[in-house]
Amino acid sequence: MSSNKAFASDASRKERIKEWVSRPGGFGIITGATMFAMITLVGFIYPLVGPYASDEFVGESLERPSWAHPMGLDQLGRDVMTRVFAAVPADIGIAFLGVTIPLVIGTVVGILLALTKNKYFKSIVSSLIDGINAFPLLIIAIAMVTFLGPGLFNVVIILTVMSWARYARIARTKAVVVMQQNYIEATKLMGYSRRRVIRKHIAPNVSSESLAYALSDFILVIIIVSGLSFLGLAARPPAAEWGAMIADGRTFLGQAWWLTIFPGLALCWSAISLSFIVEGLSRRDRGNA
Amino acid sequence: MNQNVFVRKVFGRFLRAISISFWVMVISFSLIRFSPGDPASARLGAGAEPEAIEQLREQLGLNQNAFAQFIDYFRGLLQGDLGVSLVNGVEVLETIKRTFPLTLTYITLSVFFAFIISIPIGTIIGWSNRASTVYVFRGITSIIIATPNFFIAMVAILIFSVQRNWAPVFGYVSEFPENLKYLWLPVSINTLILVAIISRVLHTSVVDTKAEEFVETGIIRGVSRPRFFWFYVLKPSLAPTVVLLSYMMGTMLGATVILETIFSLPGIGRELVGAVLGSDYPMVQGILLFFGVITVFLSFIGDLLAYALDRRVKL
User: Fold this and answer.
1) Nearest-CA neighbor of B198 among B242, B233, B236?
2) From the DSSP assignment, how many helices (H) and strands (E) are in chain B?
3) Cβ contacts of residue A255 below 8 Å, gap of 6+?
4) In chain A, which residue's Cα lies nearest the Cα of B24?
5) For an interface test with B, which of A123, A135, A262, A281 has the most B Cβ atoms less than 10 Å from its Cβ?
6) How far apart are CA B118 and CA B140, in angstroms?
């Protein structure tokens, strides 16, 4: 029967997964990835199948957590659980854009910077990178809200304008190293076109470093998105967003702790899951237990 | 190393700090030019008189071309003129002078306490380096680092102010013994986060230092314990920590903005948020510039300190 064969390959796959997990950091990576997948999935599914809408008034204001409303109701009588999960696209989604867009732009600029022979381009862009990186990200993000106005979409713009510079610095440093490697020399001997060398040989080797950084940047950006909303500078009511919900709950901290604690726990859950992944990967990199 | 080479290196690093500061200034100057609409009419609202808008544009220098305005701005900066607040007409520099000492006070306090707490933690865990201890240590610290400080602050307020009444929920009194009552909670929160960061870095660098040959030499020579731990282990391990801390200062300053707003401490961070909410453009620009320049020079000082602790550090 063919099931026997299938079983064998299944077992070897299990072996392989086991082996992968048992390597340094495997536990952290698996735990983190599972936690992150959970919050993301629930965040995208629950608002669709849940019994309430995030801006629906379903009961008494500040009702305690109960079976019908496991996280209680907020000051306007909205279901906190629905709102906590409905905030996932606003927090994780916006943070994802705020990481990937600068990651791509920054890596491209960094590689170009390492390749270019144009002195003026090099010195002007390098100085610009140093200048932008000198500002604390949260501070310059807050300041830019003055000129762009509040809003989650503007946060993506601000993050793009400000954090490409850090990715560019990482990519430039790495690209300079990569270009001195023998295999790049070899591609020249093989007569590959410049475009092919950049796309197939330089970019993949540079981006490994940038991707690792992007993962830890993700944590920072989630905290910045929610921090800006907490200050009232990003998400505007009635949008569901963790930082804004925590800020709202602050007024009722004495009577209704659930308004603050549950969105905060969701925020911690996401950030901690990512930091477990980062921690696991860095252990794997160092190769020790 | 030759004294001359040292001086030249420090001077070179100083020049770099100056040139980065120049770019910091260019950026904080040009932000207002990136606003999608007209900043003057955005600030005054839809119903504003055209004359008032025109006057504000004049005051903000938006009627000049960017280059001429930049020359004016730069000349003003050299004379210590950061502009005047649009909200209350106070000079920006005066506001910074008034609000920064408080921010500096509690950052200094939390850095001080954080070092006192993390040096033993990082050294002991790094020196023994037992797998299970390290696992727990890194787990706990990464949870603390990943938790946003405003959530930590909320939980702390819930526990210490709402339930126990050990700390006022917010407010500030600037007289000395009284102010501690308002400061201890924000300082503790900051310290907690810093301890997590510093002890992690210290742990890693103590592990690295342990592998160095001079540590073995120290053991073989039978150097006395305190001397051994200070000169052979801690001192070389502190250099990366100090560099990291000086780079982290920027992030720290960012974090204080949120803490000051939560605890309504009249520091520079709360001033910044107030200025942003009130569209006080010159104030925002001034504080931004101040933060940028401070960060640049802190990393300069951090590099020098690291060099003083470990001469192998590159300047």
Assistant:
1) B242
2) 13, 0
3) A62
4) A131
5) A135
6) 14
The mean per-residue pLDDT over the stretch A86-106 comes to 93
pTM strictly above 0.90:
no
B286 contact A CB<8A: no
ipTM for the whole complex: 0.86
List chain A residues with CB under 8 Å of B142: 272, 275-276, 278-279
Residues from chain A contacting residue B260 (CB–CB below 8 Å): none
The mean per-residue pLDDT over the stretch B33-62 comes to 76
- A chain contacts of residue B280, beta-carbon cutoff 8 Å: 146
* The pLDDT of residue A7: 56
Distance, in Å, from the CA atom of A270 to the CA atom of A211, rounded to the nearest integer, reads: 18
Task: State which H helix or E strand residue B67 sits in.
Answer: helix B66-78
Q: How far apart are CA B230 and CA B75, in angstroms?
A: 49
Residues A126-169: tens digit of each pLDDT: 989 989 988 988 999 999 998 888 888 899 999 999 999 999 99
Q: Which chain A residues are closer than 8 Å to B158 by Cβ?
A: 253, 257, 260-261
Question: Mean of the pLDDT values across residues B108-135?
Answer: 89
- Find the CB nearest A139 among B145, B154, B257: B257
